[in-house]
């Protein structure tokens, strides 16, 4: 986050999350680029997230790195 103001602008209703994540996603996108794919990384990588709709874990082994 660049400043307190940008953090304040990133707020959303707390039904699911306090922040939209737009600023975080922008910084990740700027760091890794839009086209870099997980499967193209030199070191094997995966990420685990939670699908709150299906109430299951999701393992990500392909797709764009920033997403």
Rounded average pLDDT: 79
Helix content: 25-40%
Q: Which structural class should the secondary elements be placed in?
A: alpha+beta
Output the radius of gyration.
14 Å
Total number of strands: 2
Shape: flat
Number of helices: 2
Order of helices and strands: HHEE
| Biggest β-sheet description | 2 strands, antiparallel
Strand order of the largest sheet: 1-2
Instruction: Please state roughly what percent of the residues sit in beta strands, choosing from under 5%, 5-15%, 15-25%, 25-35%, 35-45% or over 45%.
Output: 5-15%
Uncertain runs with pLDDT below 50, 5 residues or more?
none
Keywords:
67 residues; 25% helix; alpha+beta; 2 helices
Architecture blueprint of SSEs:
Elements: H1 4-9, H2 22-32, E1 47-51, E2 56-60
Antiparallel strand pairs: 1-2
Describe the model.
The mean pLDDT is 79. This protein has a two-stranded antiparallel sheet. 25% of the residues lie in helices and 15% in strands. 1% of the residues are buried. A hairpin with a 4-residue loop joins strand 1 (47-51) and strand 2 (56-60). The protein folds into 2 domains: 1-32, no CATH class; 34-67, no CATH class. The chain is of the alpha+beta class and 67 residues long. It contains 2 helices and 2 strands.
Quick overview of this protein structure:
With 67 residues, this protein is an alpha+beta fold. Helix content is 25%, strand content 15%.
